[in-house]
């Protein structure tokens, strides 16, 4: 297997802080939402932890944004293809996830340090990191101190609207967490991608054009061998 260094240290630090923060916010959020039904901890402790972890997530978001902006690597999340070519590549990826992967087909996306996300991942992470997560952070800050931000809360439709948006995004992240973990197990081994987020190195043998020639060679082998046997018999 060839090792490629695709996850720099700042990205790995951000990833694991982000992952642990999201899980903790989901757990404390469930406790706050279903107080009386679930009593793992007191409501006061759950609210306090939820707030502090929320601010950690906020700071971690700016760590991620600063790294990609100042390193010039923000293009990692931006599809650099024409719309027509992008949709063609995205459709290939959809067919792989929905059909090819169950038949042992090779992944159409070939990872590289400058192109580590496939077309579907790029758009998905753009939506999550530049729209969904900021919306969750903003609604969380507003709910943290409703009195201080009362004018903004009122402008957005009131506490009920802000809280509803916050809860809906919470449900989205809870579902996304399961999908993300599942997709993380689809490397050449179940732990390959997870291991890469600790070491920074992805192990891959995917080289463009490598899979098809191998299949062609196997199919052509009887045509090559047969004349050789025939020659020896004569």
Can you walk me through this structure?
The chain is mainly α and 234 residues long. The protein has a single domain, classed as Up-down Bundle (Fumarate Reductase Cytochrome B subunit), CATH 1.20.950.20. The protein contains eight helices and two strands. Helix 1 crosses helix 6, helix 2 packs across helix 4 and helix 4 runs antiparallel to helix 6. The longest helix is centred in the N-terminal third of the chain and has 28 residues.
Outline the fold blueprint.
Blueprint lengths: L1 E4 L3 H25 L9 H28 L12 H16 L20 H26 L5 H6 L3 H26 L7 H8 L1 E4 L6 H23 L1
Helix pairs in contact: 1-2, 1-6, 2-4, 4-6
Tags for this entry?
single chain, 234 residues, mainly alpha, Fumarate Reductase Cytochrome B subunit, two-stranded antiparallel sheet, 8 helices, 3% strand, elongated, disordered C terminus
């Amino acid at each position: 297997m060839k090792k490629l260094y695709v996850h720099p240290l700042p990205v790995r630090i951000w990833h694991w802080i982000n992952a642990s923060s999201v899980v903790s916010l989901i757990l404390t959020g469930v406790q706050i939402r279903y107080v009386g039904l679930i009593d793992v901890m007191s409501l006061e402790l759950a609210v306090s932890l939820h707030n502090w972890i929320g601010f950690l997530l906020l700071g971690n978001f700016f760590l991620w944004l600063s790294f990609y902006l100042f390193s010039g690597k923000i293009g990692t999340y931006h599809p650099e293809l024409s719309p027509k070519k992008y949709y063609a590549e995205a459709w290939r990826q959809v067919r792989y996830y929905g059909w090819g992967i169950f038949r042992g087909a090779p992944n159409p996306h070939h990872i590289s340090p400058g192109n580590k996300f496939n077309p579907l991942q790029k758009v998905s992470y753009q939506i999550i990191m530049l729209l969904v997560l900021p919306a969750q952070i903003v609604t969380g800050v507003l709910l943290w101190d409703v009195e201080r931000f009362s004018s903004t809360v009122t402008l957005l439709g009131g506490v009920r609207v802000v809280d509803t948006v916050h809860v809906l995004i919470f449900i989205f992240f809870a579902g996304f967490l399961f999908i993300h973990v599942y997709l993380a197990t689809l490397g050449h081994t179940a732990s390959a991608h997870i291991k890469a987020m600790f070491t920074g190195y992805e192990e891959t043998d995917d080289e463009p054009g490598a899979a098809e020639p191998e299949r062609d060679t196997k199919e052509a082998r009887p045509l090559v061998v047969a004349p050789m046997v025939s020659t020896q018999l004569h």
